[in-house]
Amino acid sequence: MADRNELIGDCVHCGFCLPTCPTYVLWGEEMDSPRGRIQLMLQQSQGEPLTPTMAGHFDACLGCMACVTACPSGVKYDELITETRAMVEQVRPPAGRALRAAVFALFPYRRRLALAKAPLRAYRTLGSPLRRQLPAALRTLLDLAPPAPGRARLPRVVSALGRRRARVGMLTGCVQHAFFPGVNAATARVLAAEGCEVVIPAEQGCCGALSRHSGRTAEADRFATALERSFAGVDALIVNAAGCGSSLKESGALAAKSFDLAEFLADLGPVATRHPIPLTAAYHDACHLAHAQGIRAQPRSLLHAIPGLTLREIADPEICCGSAGIWNVLNPAPAAELGDRKARNVLATGASLLVTANPGCLMQIAAAVNRAGRTIRLAHTAEVLDASIRGVRP
């Protein structure tokens, strides 16, 4: 990382970041904007103590990186907020530390997430009065979780259909593995149909994304190092969750060979026939795909290539849906506001299907649409491509 003071000095306080920042849009507070937080970083670097109030402004940041896209000066806010969050973790009061410890004792571990499905089913049998007695963070977590899916076991190796064009590894993830196994199955089928031999290690662990984006860098590095051993010997590592892909590209030996599914497929070029899907779909840019990885055109080009599929754009696409890893669990009220805003914009398109590339976004928007008393079908990009290749409805 470059010198922190130099990175801070790159900000010229022009304000281009303001209309893209979710917390500034919500509250209109300067210290809850990217340039305001950078000013706080400057004060802290000049010797001002990292107070609870200052830390609160840093914690309020979703880490969506829309400001990085909007900044004309190339300010590396992503690097600054990552380092600053690591500092905040060192001075966090015991209560906040305990809550985060509980969250991180669950999310990065696939077996623990699988065990959580039983209490989730029990929670759904409770009436509203009993639900309201639970802590807000726990209630939000349980409300966001989708219905527990059936088991979807994947083989350790999926053979390429036709001539083998690449040998790739596939990250099955934590939340994706537990709650969206159909996305992983669709990803493997699409890759195989496009001529890839797909290696899927059974014991792969967490990539470290949630930890890295929350300032727990040592923990994130341990996860990433363990993952490197699982994917030795593949040409590329294919990731179908935006946050995971962003984290893997930020550090470690896997950075150079980690690719988002849409990014990889667009570069590889299609060989499998696409069958028509006569639907109108809206595509939602996951923040860690569009802003952190700069991947916007590739998923759209893949979807546009499906016969019969009409794609509509969503208003204010740069504003985060409020998921942001575990931000919606730790900040349920403002996250719900952002989710409701995104749901309104999605529903305004008139689309019957919402497509995105991140499990957190799928859960967040689904919950907001449900609160609005509306319905819309939701799918991952991989599921739509898979349906078109197989000639079935997504």
Automatic annotation (TrEMBL):
Its cofactor is [4Fe-4S] cluster. Residues 1-31, 52-80 form the 4Fe-4S ferredoxin-type domain. GO terms for molecular function: 4 iron, 4 sulfur cluster binding; glycolate dehydrogenase activity; metal ion binding. Binds 2 [4Fe-4S] clusters. The keyword Iron applies. Keywords: 4Fe-4S, Electron transport, Iron, Iron-sulfur, Metal-binding, Repeat, Transport. The keyword 4Fe-4S applies. It is an enzyme of class 1 (oxidoreductase). Gene3D superfamilies: Alpha-helical ferredoxin (1.10.1060.10). It catalyses: (R)-lactate + A = pyruvate + AH2; glycolate + A = glyoxylate + AH2. This is Glycolate oxidase iron-sulfur subunit.
